[in-house]
Amino acid sequence: MARKSPFRRDRRKLPVHLLIPNLVTILGLCAGLTAIRFTFDDRFELAAALIIFAAVIDGLDGLIARRLKATSNFGAELDSFSDFVCFGVAPGILAYRFAMGDVQGAGWVFVLVFIICCCLRLARFNLNRDRPLPDGIRPHFVGVPAPAGAMLAMLPLFISFSGLIDTQRLGLPVALYVGFVGLMMVSRMPTISPKALRIRRDQTRWVLVGMAIVAGLVLTQVWLLMMFAVLVYLATLVHGAVQMLLRRRSHKGLAAQEEPGTASKEQNGE
After folding, report:
1. Which range of residues forms the domain containing residue 252?
2. DSSP labels for 43-55?
């Protein structure tokens, strides 16, 4: 019996609609790569806009794949690679080129921390994406997701584009901030997942009104809108971190109450 050659072409026909999610992912990847190109041309606003566009695309390709029942391992790996370029490499280089000209050596170290942390975050996500959640646990991310990390890293740019503070003169603080965002991506802190958001039916009208406001700001004050959105997300991260610390303290307190003799022995040096 003849063995099938691994180099033989697969001539089976594939429905075109199954390629749509991957085509959307490639579109987002092209946006991220082009953002890097415009960064080196010092067209920072256009580069930031392309990364935001890539984030929107990233939210669509998975949804389209599920709706068309076109999910695949290839598509998942392609999406992960695109995320690394668009939300790790591109925003890191953009932040470095925009604000770290005076601290090139130190700035690049923190940019490397951000990019590597984004890579580690995506690798961890790939390992755990098919793992089911325990009963009673709401869907959430572990650490800051890569697209959100990119938006956080670009907060200094949004502030500067809004005309509030010239962050280009704050090279070292921006570098430290970008490195801290990278560490938040690889942290174990639970963060908000859109899948966990629920809206009461009697509140949907306010969501529609809010969308009209957002549309107006996109057309008039887009950088101010992005700055406000990132600050709101930062507030949710602070709230989540505080809640996590309180839970850990309560668990330690309960454990100490269950074993009252342990603490006394430790205090006596036994």
Report:
1. 16-129+140-191+205-258
2. -HHHHHHHHHHHH
